Amino acid sequence: MSEQSPVRILIVDGKLINGGVEAFIMNIYRHIDRNKLQFDFLVHYKERFFYDDEIESLGGKIYRLSFRNDNNYLKYKRDLKNFFNSHKEYKIIWGHMDGLASVYLKAAKKSGVPITIAHSHITSSENSVKGLVKRVLRHNLSKYTDYRFACSTEAGKYLYKSNDFKLIHNAIDVEKFKFDKAIRNKIRRERNWEGYNIIGHVGRFFPQKNHLYLIKIFKALCEVDDSYKLCLCGDGEDRAFIESKVKEYNLSSKIEFTGNVSNMNEFYQGFDLFILPSLYEGLPVSGIEAQTSGLPCLFSKNITKETELLSDIVKFISIENEPQEWINPILSFKENQRLDRSTTVKNMGYDIKDLSDKLQRFFTEIYR
After folding, report:
1. What region does 259 belong to: left with phi over 0, alpha with psi -120 to 50, or beta?
2. Is 105 helix (H, G, I), strand (E, B) or coil?
């Protein structure tokens, strides 16, 4: 290995959208020494997505399979075999796509890849035929892994059962997300939020994120207190449906859809409360970002308790409750005093610079 030839890690993911898993990967990618370690990506869609341009600007290669476009399982296995047989330069595969991990990691092993790594970001699966297929495919996953990573203890136990695993925190750039009153005032002016209590939510419009339940919570809240607005950041396949429900509930003037945003750190400053009523989460990056900014957080009880870094500004509520039962917890955080919590979060092991250094040493050592 020379200074001119970095170790190249192949990362396997579905598509490079602006999601929590992808944000975690990109946080690491931006902070490693790319003269020594470089990330390339194997994805499962032919289309380009949110992070493609940035990855290529950082020197990463993106290989595209078509499995999510054509759903041809036999072709997918042939494509994997052909890919790994023609790309012998990859000695380390780091898989973040859990549902198909046993398929692509097995193919990698059969083609002679020395080191395979699975990374769990989930604690459950959707209750559907697709979810059932994923659970069946995951059954033998540990047979094809040399190392097993997980974002939380619960995520590790869910995917790997009794097999051992290494805990890798969903670290962030804590300096970027720490509370800044000047930024708060700026974005609230720009978005005409002054005089309102702003509830924020960050997540892909996908059933897991439980947007419809959140809209029902907000509808019940507005019937009690008209000072609130809701800001939904993100995009996804369910967005049009949620927008139609907002119109049906006559809440269009109270709910803002931003799409994907590049300055999410500034949005956290402008919010007054963060709500994440997900059906399940491994350990949400957005929850760490929100707490770092000192933002009060209401999480679904279905989200792992390890997400709670700052107990004084975090509450967990059951999504089995009627939406009205979220109102008092929301009101209890009204006029909350915002503080910079970045040092506490950093000291708990969630600083991206520290984690990137550790992972760079780890990858370099196992490569050697």
Report:
1. left
2. helix
Q: Considering the entire predicted model, what is its pTM?
A: 0.90
pLDDT over threshold 50, residue 283: yes
**Listed residue (142, 102, 97) closest to 122, CA to CA:** 97
Q: How confident is the model at residue 128 (pLDDT cuts 50, 70, 90)?
A: low
DSSP 334: T
Domain 7-171+351-367, CATH number (from 3.40.50.2000, 3.90.1150.10, 3.30.360.10, 3.40.50.10400): 3.40.50.2000
Phi, psi of 169, deg, nearest 5: -65, 145
68 pLDDT above the threshold of 90: no
DSSP string, 216-249: HHHHHHHTT-TTEEEEEEB--TTHHHHHHHHHHT
Instruction: Name the token pair of 171.
Output: 């670290």
Residue 93 pLDDT > 80 = yes
CATH 3.40.50.2000 domain locations along the chain: 7-171+351-367, 174-347
Tokens of 313: 């500004």
Give the mean pLDDT of 3-27: 91
Q: What phi, psi does 257 have (nearest 5°)?
A: -105, 115
Q: How far apart are CA 325 and CA 319, in angstroms?
A: 9
Q: Record the tokens describing residue 135, joined without a space.
A: 């659970």
Q: How does DSSP assign 261-309, residue by residue?
A: -S-HHHHHHH-SEEEE--S-BSS-HHHHHHHHTT--EEEETTB-GGG-S
pLDDT one-digit tens code per residue, 220-265 = 999 999 999 999 999 999 999 999 999 999 999 999 999 999 899 9
Q: Which CATH architecture has domain 174-347?
A: 3-Layer(aba) Sandwich (3.40)
Biggest CA–CA distance in the chain, Å, is 65
Given a contact cutoff of 8 angstroms between Cβ atoms, the answer to whether 199 and 275 are in contact is yes
Q: What angle do CA 168, 159, 38 make, to 5 degrees?
A: 40
Cα 259 to the center of its chain, rounded Å: 16
Residue 183, both tokens = 């930024």
Q: Do 165 and 156 touch, CB atoms closer than 8 A?
A: yes
